[in-house]
């Protein structure tokens, strides 16, 4: 295919493309930023300017970096051999990747394939709802979600969304979803800071008791709240959550769409917290963006709840995902996982994550606008405030200015965007698992200069 000139591509985009999360009025006076090439940690725009990507593709996805010929070649070879067949049939890539994935998830057993994080969570919700029908006369259908967590963009996943602005104007929502409070230590409502993990987790029990234990079938949580501000749970939180789930017979769904496949320094974020989920969902870093894939992973017990006499026409999981049958996803995911192993990227994530956190804390000492620094592995957030004593958040425009200043210096960082009424004040960092100290130093320098400019 002949390479078109830049002007014609930009013109075609502005005339025909409807961009994600964008008020297109802005394009009356400016052009979209085109990212056209990537290698390692770096990407280039259509004008040839290079950027260090500190957000792994903008949305926590390209975990092993750009330009991985090994993944691209494996996908090409597989697509030539067999591009697709419905996943009601078997395929070699899905079998091999499922086996490899389960080897990293003690206690888990089965993998259901689809093509996005939203869809993976929809499958989890449907599993809870159908088990309610199969085992509880349809009564245990409610699902608890947490304030500030995000689980997808469909109507039902937005029904489980703890971010006001993301769900505003899209109701009415699917009934049966109930919110519990967040677990932000920085914005804790408790006067006493002791045993916060238990206090935050006990809010789940309060919700279950209020709704009626015989009506609640599951709870969905991010191991670390991602788009809601990179919120790490306090010690003991997930242990207490597990106790409550066992007490009331709740299926525990852990949403690993962001944290999964190495982002936090373990294969999955929940593996830091001494918890055994019933269902784990994942997408984004599963194939590092080289192909679309998501997985809904369950224990063998959850799977067995759908095993019955074939004459029972309502007993099996009556769900389908068309592109869950595309072979590119599991092929890319298998090679992606192998690269993480071969290059010791979990170890690098721990090492570089510690270095990143140390450098961010140095920034906090220099800039009073930084109220809190938190995260795990190569996943970090800086919450910006007007005053550290009151913790009053800065306006979203302030975080946007810092992001813009970093862009001018050739570093792409992220931020909470149009999610809350007033807490869109966290800068987000999630560089690829291959990042080095020099990459981190470049990110820190850009942030330092950005704060100096914005706070001047």
UniProtKB/TrEMBL annotation:
GO terms for molecular function: pyridoxal phosphate binding; taurine-pyruvate aminotransferase activity. Its cofactor is pyridoxal 5'-phosphate. Its EC number is 2.6.1.77. Pathway: Organosulfur degradation; alkanesulfonate degradation. Keywords: Aminotransferase, Pyridoxal phosphate, Pyruvate, Transferase. PROSITE patterns: AA_TRANSFER_CLASS_3 (PS00600). The keyword Transferase applies. SUPFAM superfamilies: PLP-dependent transferases (SSF53383). The keyword Phosphoprotein does not apply. It catalyses: taurine + pyruvate = sulfoacetaldehyde + L-alanine. Pfam families: Aminotran_3. InterPro entries: Aminotrans_3, Aminotrans_3_PPA_site, PyrdxlP-dep_Trfase, PyrdxlP-dep_Trfase_major, PyrdxlP-dep_Trfase_small. Homotetramer. NCBIfam families: PRK07678.1. PANTHER family: AMINOTRANSFERASE, AMINOTRANSFERASE CLASS-III. Belongs to the class-III pyridoxal-phosphate-dependent aminotransferase family. This is Taurine--pyruvate aminotransferase. It comes from Desulfomicrobium orale DSM 12838.
């Amino acid at each position: 295919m002949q390479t078109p000139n830049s002007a014609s591509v930009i013109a075609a985009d502005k005339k025909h493309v409807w961009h994600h999360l964008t008020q297109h009025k802005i394009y009356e006076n400016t052009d979209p930023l085109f990212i056209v090439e990537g290698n390692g940690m770096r990407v280039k725009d259509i004008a040839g300017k290079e950027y260090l990507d500190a957000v792994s593709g903008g949305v926590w996805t390209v975990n092993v970096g750009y330009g991985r010929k090994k993944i691209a070649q494996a996908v090409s070879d597989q697509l030539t051999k067999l591009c697709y067949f419905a996943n009601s049939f078997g395929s070699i890539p899905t079998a091999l990747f499922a086996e490899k994935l389960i080897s990293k998830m003690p206690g888990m057993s089965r993998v259901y394939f689809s093509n996005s994080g939203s869809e993976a969570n929809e499958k989890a919700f449907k599993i809870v709802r159908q088990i309610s029908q199969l085992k509880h006369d349809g009564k245990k259908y409610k699902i608890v979600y947490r304030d500030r967590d995000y689980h997808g963009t469909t109507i039902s996943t937005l029904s489980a969304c703890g971010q006001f602005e993301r769900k505003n104007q899209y109701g009415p929502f699917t009934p049966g979803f109930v919110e519990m409070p967040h677990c932000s230590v920085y914005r804790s409502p408790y006067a006493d800071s002791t045993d916060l993990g238990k206090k935050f987790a006990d809010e789940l029990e309060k919700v279950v008791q209020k709704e009626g234990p015989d009506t609640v079938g599951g709870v969905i949580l991010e191991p670390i709240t991602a788009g809601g501000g990179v919120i790490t749970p306090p010690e003991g939180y997930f242990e207490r959550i597990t106790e409550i789930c066992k007490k009331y017979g709740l299926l525990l769904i852990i949403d690993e769409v962001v944290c999964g496949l190495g982002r936090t320094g373990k294969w999955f974020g929940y593996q830091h917290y001494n918890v055994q989920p019933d269902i784990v969902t994942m997408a984004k870093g599963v194939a590092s963006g080289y192909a679309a894939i998501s997985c809904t992973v369950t224990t063998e017990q959850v799977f067995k709840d759908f095993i019955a006499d074939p004459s029972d026409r309502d007993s099996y999981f009556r769900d389908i995902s068309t592109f869950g049958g595309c072979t590119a996803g599991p092929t890319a995911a298998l090679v992606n996982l192998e690269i993480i192993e071969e290059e010791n990227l979990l170890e690098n994530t721990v090492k570089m994550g510690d270095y990143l956190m140390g450098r961010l804390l140095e920034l906090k000492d220099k800039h009073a606008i930084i109220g809190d620094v938190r995260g795990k592995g190569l996943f970090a957030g800086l919450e910006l405030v007007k005053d550290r004593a009151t913790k009053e958040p800065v306006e979203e425009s302030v975080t946007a200015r810092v992001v813009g200043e970093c862009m001018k210096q050739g570093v792409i960082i992220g931020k909470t965007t149009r999610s809350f009424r007033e807490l869109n004040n966290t800068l987000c960092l999630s560089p690829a698992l291959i990042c080095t100290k020099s990459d981190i130093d470049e990110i820190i320098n850009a942030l330092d200069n950005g704060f100096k400019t914005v706070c001047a």
